[in-house]
Write a structure and sequence with these properties.
26% of the residues are buried. It contains five helices and seven strands; from the N terminus they run βααβααββββαβ. Helix 2 crosses helix 4.
């Protein structure tokens, strides 16, 4: 499963014991990956100005980083900074995907949400997969050495 959202912070707020669930999934062999924005990047600062809300992107990213720190080191769980992807969230679970294209001057919860299911090779689903894989491959490790999280 891949959580490629710029902050991903809402996951920790909406799902009780989310970290425990992730650890359990990883222990069962599931690969869990988080792709985040860098809270210190110029892109984050620029988007914070654009959003103009009190709960800043960098704060929301830091919520996720704090929660990920609690499950860091669990085999199968990894996190990277994307270096981009500021206007699109992609959450993938096998052949199901939730895609949220962020709209200018809006926060994520004000954006439309699309549910995609993989039905064919090289369709829309696979295009989003390729996009996220490219961001993942270009990303930088949140925890330094990412080999501990590779499945």
């Amino acid at each position: 499963m891949t959580f490629a959202g710029y902050t991903n912070y809402f996951l920790w707020l909406e799902q009780a014991q989310f970290g425990v669930s992730l650890k359990r999934k990883a222990a069962q062999g599931c690969r869990v990956r988080f792709l985040l924005g860098d809270p210190e990047s110029e892109l984050t600062r620029s988007r914070e100005k654009d959003e103009g809300v009190a709960l800043t992107l960098s704060t929301r990213i830091r919520v996720t980083l704090s929660e990920l720190e609690k499950i860091k080191g669990q085999h199968g769980i990894d996190a990277r900074y994307s270096g981009g992807n500021a206007y699109l969230s992609v959450f993938r679970f096998d052949d199901d995907m939730i895609v949220t294209p962020l709209l200018t001057h809006n926060v994520g919860h004000d954006a439309p949400t699309l549910h995609l299911r993989r039905h064919q090779d090289d369709g829309v689903f696979d295009r989003f997969v390729s996009h996220v894989e490219e961001l993942w491959n270009r990303g930088t490790a949140v925890w330094g050495d990412t080999h501990h999280g590779q499945a």
